[in-house]
Design brief:
It is a single chain. This protein is of the alpha+beta class. It has 3 domains: 60 residues; 82 residues, no CATH class; 162 residues, Distorted Sandwich (Glucose Permease (Domain IIA)), CATH 2.70.70. Helix content is 42%, strand content 22%. It contains 8 helices and 15 strands. The strands form 3 sheets. Strands 4, 7, 8, 9, 10, 11, 12, 13, 14 and 15 form a 10-stranded antiparallel beta sheet that branches. The protein has a 3-stranded antiparallel beta sheet with strand order 1-2-3. The longest helix is centred in the N-terminal third of the chain and has 80 residues. The radius of gyration is 53 Å and the shape is rod-shaped.
């Protein structure tokens, strides 16, 4: 219901009935007002005060009175001003609070983006590590080609690689990862540059020596995956005498009847069983095929089951020349494969065939290459019969 507010100053010398309302208000509430006014006057004697009257819209209801001293008014005003100051401060600080909230959200987004960038950076470094491993494998393959052709990599312009200048590393929490990536990139770039140079030199050699490129034994004699290297090149313990002897080739265990292929273009200089009366050692090879690859190489295939070629026949790389067997001194079906290369003294000396098998990857290729370059000349091997060297 509507309320009426009336402000009136009162003092101790004010008549008790002073300030009554006119008309029905004064008549209806005159006596009550007089009593209240007298009580208020006696209670506030000795100072001014503020009187607030609340008149209800219904004349039958009592008029309410509120009395405030000067101290109470000052206190109330101070509280109001304090509240207003808080309101003003709230409005002034609200933009800063909003900006701070938005800044925190932006910071979290930046942290998440930085972590994602770090993961991508580490993934790139991992890929560079894989590329470095692959470049090392390619370098070994190129070294095998150079060694097979009898070239000297020490004289190559690609020897030593192509060093790249270091890159600056930005100031970031991922500085170590970036530095690692830069180092890997420099090594891979230098390695690939050297490989490209070596390959250009190999291509130039092949273009100038096409016959030598065709006759260098460079393919595996067994093309299927159904074989296992059981006996490597070098000294070993003989399965028959149990004594240490020199194994001039490598042994591939494979099922009987597995096709044996020519590793390069060649001419068949022997096909059959070597006569026992001429040499017990060569007779032990069982059914044997010997290929002449120009003047520099001879390849031997021992313990064959069936021979598919005859003496004087020309074969191309990949032609089937025999099948795997178990003839001669053999404990199980396998192929004995030898590569002999003519040295400076015009003698055919055995070399590790794994170096010349370019279409296969061996676990210890780097060690094989180092040994092939630094090992002393062999002396305790069975020389080839004159029949094989013609």
């Amino acid at each position: 219901m509507p309320l009426k507010l009336r402000l009136r100053r009162s003092s101790k010398d004010r008549p008790p009935g002073g300030g009554e309302g006119r008309g029905s208000d004064s008549r209806a509430g005159g006596s009550r007002y007089a009593k209240s006014s007298r009580k208020a006057t006696s209670a506030s004697s000795g100072g001014r005060r503020l009187e607030i009257q609340i008149h209800p819209g219904n004349i039958r209801r009592r008029v309410r009175y509120l009395f405030f001293t000067r101290r109470q008014l000052v206190t109330l005003a101070a509280l109001v001003l304090l509240w207003l100051s808080f309101v003003v401060a709230g409005f002034s600080l609200a933009p800063s609070v909003v900006r701070g909230f938005l800044a925190r959200n932006e910071y979290r987004a930046l942290v998440a983006e930085r972590e994602l960038s770090g993961e991508r950076l580490r993934a790139l470094v991992s890929r560079l590590e894989g590329l470095e491993g692959r470049s090392e494998e390619l370098r070994l393959q190129v070294d095998k080609i150079i060694l097979a052709y009898g070239l000297t990599s020490d004289e190559s312009i690609g020897q030593g690689g192509f060093p790249t200048p270091p890159r600056p590393v930005p100031q970031t929490v991922y500085a170590n990862v970036i530095q690692q990536g830069n180092d890997l990139d420099a090594r891979v770039s230098g390695e690939l540059g050297a490989i490209a140079t070596f390959l250009e030199e190999v291509r130039a050699f092949e273009a100038a020596n096409r016959e030598r490129a065709r006759t260098t034994p460079s393919a595996s004699p067994l093309t299927s995956d159904r074989f296992v290297l059981t006996s490597p090149f070098g000294n070993r313990r003989s399965p028959f005498t149990k004594n240490l002897d020199f194994h001039a080739g490598i042994d591939f265990a494979a099922p009987v009847g597995t096709p044996v292929h020519a590793p390069a273009d060649a001419v068949v200089v022997f096909a059959g069983r070597y006569p026992l009366r001429r040499s017990v050692g060569w007779w032990r090879y069982g059914n044997l095929v010997v290929l002449a690859h120009g003047d520099d190489f001879r390849t031997l295939f021992g313990h064959c089951n069936e021979i598919k070629v005859q003496r004087g026949q020309r074969v191309r790389q990949g032609d089937v020349i025999a099948t795997v067997g178990n003839t001669g001194w053999s404990t199980a079906s396998h192929l004995h494969y030898e590569v002999r290369r003519r040295d400076d003294e015009r003698k055919f000396v055995p070399v590790d065939p794994r170096i010349y098998i370019l279409d296969r990857h061996w676990r210890d290729e780097e060690r094989l290459l180092v040994r092939a370059r630094t090992a002393p000349a062999l002396a305790n091997f069975e020389p080839l019969p004159d029949l094989f060297t013609r």
